[in-house]
Automatic annotation (TrEMBL):
Enzyme class: isomerase
Primary site of residence: cytoplasm
Binding sites annotated in the UniProt record for substrate: 12, 59, 69-70, 178, 195-196, 206-207
Listed pathway(s): Amino-acid biosynthesis; L-lysine biosynthesis via DAP pathway; DL-2,6-diaminopimelate from LL-2,6-diaminopimelate: step 1/1
Designated name of the protein: Diaminopimelate epimerase
Amino acid sequence: MTSYDVYHGTGNDFAVVDADEQVEKTAFGTDLCRSLDVDGTLFLGIEDGGERATMTLVQPDGSRAAMCGNGARCAAKWVSERTGRDVVTLETGAGPRRCTVEGDVVTVEMGTPAFDPDDVPLAREAALVDEALEGYDVTAVNTGVPHAVTFVDDVDAVDLAEMAPPIRHHEVFPEGANVNLAAPTEHGFDQRTYERGVEGETQACGTGAVAIAVVASRLGLAPETGEVTVSPPGGDLAIGLREDGTTTLRGPTERMLTGEVSDA
Ligand SMILES: N[C@@H](CCC[C@H](N)C(=O)O)C(=O)O
């Protein structure tokens, strides 16, 4: 039998499996996504007594993503519950990410977002900033994975399932992109995200929330530094914009259940 836990971070849900389990990760991870109807399977390998852990995300379509903000929050909580440590550095495909666990609230140091076309990546030589693409004014940024961000008056007035795929698969994004709708509110920004790999809308996306905050800042819709609240359907996320250009993602996480699947 192989055991798993299910966690969610503001509604973005993940099965979590010990990386030492003797399973073929892509097949096992996609099967688990399907049977549990979750947004991804995280394989976590605890190292140095929990000071560090490796994180591999297998998505429902079998792809692997270099980084996942809400997944990192859930991963840090899982490691903390197993080891008692409240500071964990996750080794991700986008580099090390330091996480701090305070009860159910986890903060991830998300690094420096990149607008450079080589880093997003983009199939052109100039950054894509507030430019018309498939009928929307889009800005492209990499916050660990590629994101397209567009600001609208009301995120719920847009048919995300219809508008997102042409941008998600646009030739300007050679590796595809997650597509985010954002709308200014009294307290920050509403968020809806269509995720690459899930190929549909999720209840929250951490790298997407960071993308919205940094794009808002770049376009003059939010301050250059400080904290920005981004609200996907699953709850509120606090994004820190620091003077040195690095960012943080803070929000609640919760273990929902524990289960086992037969190896046969
Ligand atoms: N839900 C995630 C993002 C996961 C990766 C994404 N679907 C991709 O393929 O780039 C988050 O919370 O950041």
